[in-house]
Amino acid sequence: MSASFAASGIGERVDAIVERYRPAVREAMQAALRDRRLPLYAAMRYHLGWEDASGNPAVGRGGKLLRPALCLLSCEAVGGDWKRAVPAAAGVEFLHNFTLVHDDIQDASPKRHGRDTVWNLWGQAQAINVGDGLYALAHQEMLRLAGAGAPPEVVVGAIGLLDEATLRLCEGQFLDISYEDEPSVPREAYLAMIGGKTAALMAASAAIGALVGGGGERAIAAFREAGRLLGLAFQVRDDVLGIWGDPKDTGKATGEDIRARKKTYPIVHTMESASPAERARLRELYAAPRLKREAFDEIVAILERARAREEAEAAAAGYAEEALAAIEGLDLRDGPLGDLGALAAHFARRPR
Predict the structure, then answer these.
(1) Residue 170's CB: how many other CB atoms inside 10 A?
(2) What is the distance between the alpha carbons of residues 119 and 125, in angstroms, rounded to a whole number?
(3) pLDDT exceeding 90 applies to what percent of the chain?
(4) Residue 278: how many CB atoms within 10 A of its CB?
């Protein structure tokens, strides 16, 4: 199966896939918070997009739920009943949001998708509590797999995959922050960083889905690798959107990654492939204590002369293709496999 089919209709197909699962995943997540009345949980519901800052119901669907969709599709693909994997899907989404709350603190981001971030409303200390609470809820959801009929060894295996992913997420985030002070980062170091901060949870989502769906060791390992590669595609595409994306689509100001001195794929590529003079100028601009508008425009011009956007887009598409290749040869159901192909294509070229 190839991810290189026409872009037309992929976004709509992925929306339909996510919407098929959304009610069940959202109900599981809301049930986990329904009877919790402390302001701590109100802040969680706010972050998840269910309420406004005053506790009133918010208009909107909440998160994209791409990781839960990957988890449930993987379960279906190996022949399982996706409804039995809903607690796992809710768990990976809670864990993802734990990382987002902490990421906003670490990056000092005042907005996420056009809304005030948790720390910006309630302060950094309370936002840490909110993130930690979401982490605990992720584990509680994994334990609920037993009530959905999963045997003890599957529950333990799912929790193990989730915990390993969490540790890898922390490693990747640590590297991401530490690289901000480095003049340049080799491609291998960049890939190790995004392999933790983004790809680890994608890998766990797919592997947990295959595990709960009854896949054997070979299938679980293959889905884990496919999820990892999808995570790489997702992050490289995110790096492109962070520089060239439309703020109306992405929900954040253009160039935030550059202003934060992030070592994204376009920067890493340019540092390796541009002329010595261009590389030296890019390092000089990145070392400035503050980036003025003219400096930002010059950085983007250097990236474009190095064809960094085209190279990043090609890399994202390549990782998506590799992800599908990782599960070739398995005995999988055609419908979910086709949906996984659509999801892979979307990860490589999504507009937000």
Answers:
(1) 15
(2) 8
(3) 85
(4) 17
Q: 269 by DSSP, 3-state: which? A: helix
pTM of the model: 0.94
Quick: pLDDT tens for 93-138. Answer: 999 999 999 999 999 999 988 899 999 999 999 999 999 999 999 9
Per-residue pLDDT reduced to its tens digit, 178-213:
998 888 899 999 999 999 999 999 999 999 999 999
HSE-CB at 268 with a 13 A cutoff on CA atoms is: 23
Is the confidence at residue 301, as pLDDT, over 80? yes
Dist. CA 322–CA 197, nearest whole Å: 20
Our separate counts of H helices and E strands in the chain read 17, 2
Q: What is the DSSP string of 183-224?
A: S---HHHHHHHHHHHTHHHHHHHHHHHHHHTT--HHHHHHHH
| Structure tokens belonging to residue 285 | 């601009």
d(CA 193, CA 169): 9
**Amino acid occupying residue 166:** T
| Helix (H) or strand (E) segment spanning residue 115 | strand 115-116
- 130 by Cβ neighbours in 10 Å (0-12 / 13-18 / 19+) ranks as buried
Q: What is the DSSP string of 7-70?
A: STTHHHHHHHHHHHHHHHHHHHHHHHHTT--SHHHHHHHHHTTSB-TTSPBPSS--S--HHHHH
Tokens of 90: 């809710």
As a whole number of angstroms, the distance between CA 228 and CA 198 comes to: 8
Crossing angle of helices 124-143 and 152-179, rounded to 10°? 150
Paired tokens of 318: 């390549």
